[in-house]
Structure formats: C-alpha cells, structure tokens
Hints:
Oligomer: single chain
Amino acid sequence: MKLKLLLAVLLLTITHPGSAVIGQDAEPEQVLAESAVIGQKNAEPELVLAETELLASLAGGYTTIKQPDRAIQLLEETLSFNQTLANPCHKLEILTNVAGHYAFMGQEAKSSALFAQAQKILETTKYCEPKPTGSARNDPQNWVLVAAGRHARDGRHDIALRIATSFGDNYLEDMLQGLLYTYTDSGSRQPDRAAEIQLKLADYYNRTGQSDKAVQIWLFLVNYYNETGQPDRASELQSLASKAERTFNSSSASTQSRQNQAQIELSRCFAQKETNILLSIRTIVETLDPEQLRQILNICQEVEPAEQATEVSALTLKALEQIVLATQKIANPISRSRTLTAVANLYANVEKDAEAVKLLNKSLLTLQAGAANLPSDARYEASRALEEIIAGYLRIGQIAQALEVAQLVQTGKLNLAASDFSQVPVDSKFAYQSLMPPIVAFYAQTGQFEQALQLANTLGRGHRDEALRRIVEQYASKGQYAQALKTAQMIKSLEVQNKASVIYSIIEQAIEARELDWAVEATQTIEWTKQATQAIGETIDGATNESLNYRNKLLLAIAREYAQLRQFDRAIQAVNMMNSNEIGNYRRVQALSAIAREYAQAEQTEEALKLLEQAVEIARSISSPKASG
C-alpha cells in the first residue's frame, strides 16, 4: 500500500525534478555534532534552533494535558529567541513552528499573525546564507518544510497540513510535495494521510489548469481506495479522471506535456493489478513514433474503467500487440531493446508470462545484434539495457535465463561496459560481477539464502558487499532480524551506503515489527563507532558522532513503541540508555515528550506532567555552554 502511494510521487518527480528531496530534514544530531566541533560561538545558532524546536514541541504536550497557560509560556519563550538570531531563515522556522502550535491550540488570531510574519520573511529572503550555494539549507522554503515535516513525523498531522497550506498558491505545490515525501519516506503507518495530501495536490493542479497532473493522482488513488474498502470514493475519483480534458492532439501543447498525457492514458490501460509500471510506460512513450503512439492511445481511450476490475480486456491486449509492432520501426538497437523489455514488463503485469518471455528473448537478441557495432560511448547505455532484461526475467521467476544473460558477459560473448563504470573499459569478469547482485537478491527473496550467500561470496569485494546488502534486506523483510544482522556484519564497506546505516535499518525494521526486546539488545551490543568508521572517508570523530546518532534514534523509536504499548517502565529504560550530552539530549527530550503524550492518553496526567517538566529542563540546557559531554 505504501508503494502505491509512492507512485504518484514518482510520476510527479518525472515532471517536477527535485521534488522528491524537498522537505528532507538534516539530522538534528548531525547538526549538533558538527556545531560542537566548530566551537560554542559559531555553534550557538544551531543549538538555539534545536532548543526552540523542542520547547515548542513540549508546549504541544502541555496543550494535550490541558495546561494552556504553561503551553503559551513555552511558546512565547520560543519566540523570544528570535531576538538573538541574525539568520532570517532561523527566524522563519521558529515563526512557522510556533504558528502551527498556536493553530493547534485554537488561537487562530495569534497563529495567523505569526504566519504573516513568516510569509514576509519567505517572500523577501532569497538565500539563507550571504551567498547562493547548492545546499538545501540555503533555500528559505525548505526551512518551512522542515517545520511541517517534523510535525508530520511526530503525529501532529493537522499542524503539518496547516503549515503547508498557509503560504498561498505560489508555494503550495512544493509545500504539499515536500509534506507528501515526508509521509512516504518516513515509513508512516498512516497511508491515509499521504492520500489526503495527494488529493489536495490534485485539487491544486485541477484548479490551476494542470489537469494532466491531477489525473495522474486521481487514477492511482482509485486503486488505493478500492484496496482500502472505499469503492464509492474510488468511483468518484475515477469519474473525475475520466471527465478531465485530454489534449493529446493540441498543437499548442509542449512535447513534455504530450508525453505526460500519454503516460496517464497508458497507465490507465495497463494498471490492472500492479501500478509499479511507470518507468516501463515512460520508456514506451519516449521511444515510439508519435503517430504510432497516437494509434495506441486511441485504442486505450476505448478501454472502460470497469474492465480493469476483472480480467484483462481484449482492447488492452490489442494495445500491447500494437506497441510490439511499433517497436519494429525503432532504428536504435538499444532503444528498441529497452522498449521490448518495457512491453515485456507490461505483459508480466497482466500475468501473460509466456508473452513476456518471448519479448525478453527478442530484446536480448536485438541487443546482441547491435552490440557488435556499438560505439564505445554507447556501451554504458547498452549495459543498462542488459540490466533491465535481467530484471525482467527475474520479475517472472526465470532465474535460469537471467543467469545465462550474465554468463554471456562473463564469457565475453557480449562485450559491454560495467553498469557502475560509465563508459570505462573493464574486463568481462568485472562486468559480469556488476550484474550479479540482483540475481543474488532473487535467490534470497525466494528463501534460498544459502545459495544466495554462496553466490555472493564468489564476487569481488565491492559487488560482494552490494550482494550481501541485498541479502540483508531480504532477511529483514522476512522478519529474520538476527540473520540479517549477522550477514550485515560480513560486509566490509560500501561505496554509497555506510555499513552502520545498513545495521540501523535492520534494527529499525525490528522496532516497527515490535520485536522490541531484541532491538534493545542489538542496539546495545553493536560496536557502532567501529561500523561507522568503515564508511568511505569517515574520521574517528565523525564516526563517533555518527554512531551516537544511529544509537539515539533507535532508542527514541524503541521508547515510543514501548510507550504506545503502555510499557512505560521499559520506555523510560530506553531513554536512560541515551548519552547525556547535547547530541543525546535532543533525542532524550523527544522521547520524554512522546512518553508523556502516551501517559496523557492513558489519563495518567501527573506522570505526564513530571516527564514534561523534566524534558523542559533538559531542552533548556542544550544551548547552554554548561551542557555536559
């Protein structure tokens, strides 16, 4: 279900590059750690920001236990820090955060006044720093999104949405997309919230004349609402999508717009049981001749939505057959191969595996025939096409064919660049090994872990580690956390992902599955600093700070889960395991606040009050020079 909510994000990022990273928050512990290194004077603004965020959050806790005066006191204390900050974006975040909390308290006049101040800063500030840089922290809008994202992750959904919608249409698209990414990326257990954001995005697109984007969202939410037992809502959205104006033949429409419209119509044709076929559809749209594509779209427009709820319609199969015929006119062998693979994926999506195999075989032959005459600068693109063929075979369980393809490269019968070395000549052995991690992952996915491990251990170090990482993912997805952890510790290093982050993800999944006792033990027994030093270029000091970050975040998640289970003593024990410098105190306050919230919901107000007071005291120490190490 989460995957399907992500599909609209994927479609939007195709037409709105960079939107998927909007709203990502820098790790607070990382910022605090860096601040500690550069010295107290320079660190103070970041420490102050951490303190104000925590105090405002704790104000929400007091509101929950019906102590509005105490909440207002903390909010006003938070606002007072603006007088000590020079950076307008720091002030922007504080104003936005506090405005959201006043809205939560029902004080609309105060909230609106603060949002107005924040909007003035947003409209008059080009960069957060004196000079433009590529850092997301230099974009004023991202500071608003950080505030909204934190509320979303902490369960204050109404505040998050209020923040995202309080700055007008000029900012609304990026705000909503940033908030949507927060929900989908954070592993939220409330996909209905992500759906709510998507509906607001669709409404925005529809009323601003971007009906193609609105239809994209409506069509994918139809599946979501059908799966969640809300057929009336699904029918309503299907009707909206069907009535939306489609202008494929408009001469005034840009090529990009026509392609977007085509992707929408093709997704409606082929998304019967799975909607994760967007990339295949995009390949088809980008490679087919416009006139042939128009013929296919004409067939698709005749497909009734009701037909998609049962078996594959004859019209859908006719459209697929037409695409196969159209591929014959694609001159470039790599493009023709990729398009054939894309159509094979669509056949697999409608459970026509025999047709899918035929097309994958044809795709491979096309690539082989063209490989002999490929210029050297096209071999990398060809290797990616080969990866897609292997993935296509694996998608329908054809492991023998996938291995045969890899062996063509190993024996030098298909001479391409390695997929992870753009246009760099490499030997056949290295190129072969670059293709193997997905095959290893298939064995693990099907429960053949011993075979997966044996195959991984035949690979060179970099590819072996990537294969092991994929085995780890499969162990964890099946709830075999101890085996996942054991396998992760076999990894030597990773080019892209820190080994410690792989271990972190295992324990995080165990926490989400509420295997809390095991997670506590694992968190305490891992030598985090040792694992973090194996990241490329990581220093000992950096690894130490990073290891504290991983450990504290896990303990925070554990404390929250125990509190939700009303195992308050265990939750407090997890808090006490955190370190007590400014790095650990940030998470400590968050944990105490979360436990207090659960106490309040259990009508144990006195206990909640004690924890909130303790948290306030710790929060106030973060920007103080006396904060202990």
